[in-house]
Amino acid sequence: xxxxxxPHPAPATTDAATGSRRPRLARMAGRAxxxxxxxxxxHNVSAATAALLALVAIGAVLHEPVxxxxxxxxxxxxxxxxxLPLAQPRSVVVGHLLGAAAGYAVAVVSHGSAWAAxxxxxxxxxxxxxxxxxxxxxxxxxxxxxxxxxxxxxxxxLLFGSTVLLVLTAYAASRVRRAAPKYxxxxx
Length: 188
Description:
Layout: E1 12-14, E2 21-23, H1 24-29, H2 38-62, H3 69-80, H4 89-110, H5 114-130, H6 136-148, H7 152-176
Antiparallel strand pairs: 1-2
Helix pairs in contact: 2-3, 2-7, 3-6, 3-7, 4-5, 4-6, 4-7, 5-6
């Protein structure tokens, strides 16, 4: 058996716009969003990192873990993809609160199993879809709640405050850099 041969090239397809033939992989790669300028990338990454560091600092002062993984994903959305529906304030704040509600509801009857965490994520997806507040990190919030069972009286205000902080930092960051897209596209 001979294994050092070059792989077969991807089949060519005809580009409808130009009539030229391009390999399928090249055509698919061309659909990715444009690479941000170095200045835009540095601005977005530094703003998201600053917001996450602020959550850590608040947690240190309160002696509570405020930064949870879903909030890091939310920061990435609001700072690096501010025009997406998933990044709008309504989706960020309400989405996480719906995820928390689903997580606590499922946790009451399940006692922290991975099966229940998956169910809570699905319930969150259904709720955010029905409420027109799509925010995929909210599904992860439901999972965190089912698996870790944080005290609601302490967790919910911190979650709400954290989501508001993420939205406000994205709003401020979009006004600092003149060429940045303005955030949000809509508030509610």
